[in-house]
Design goal:
The protein has one domain: 2-Layer Sandwich (Alpha-Beta Plaits), CATH 3.30.70. The protein is built from 3 helices and 4 strands, in the order E-H-E-E-H-H-E. A hairpin with a 5-residue loop joins strand 2 and strand 3.
Length: about 90
Amino acid sequence: MARYALHLSFDGDPRRLAARPAHREHLRRLKEEGRLVSAGPWADDSGALHVYEVADEAELREILRRDPYTAVDAYEIVLLKEWTPIM
């Protein structure tokens, strides 16, 4: 398994807020499955940071493809990078 950090940027499109409940349900399922370590928005709601534990980047891209936020083009990926925590 590999850990990935994902930094998202939001643009203020109201479709994102409409999709938020489904997006959070998607994240909840991923957390229960052990594929999401942590996720949350920046304090100013300009974006979010997610940390995933998945087999590889292809699996993470598939997770993003199924995210309700993706369907409404609610974010831009600022950074998607494999991360090696030391503690």
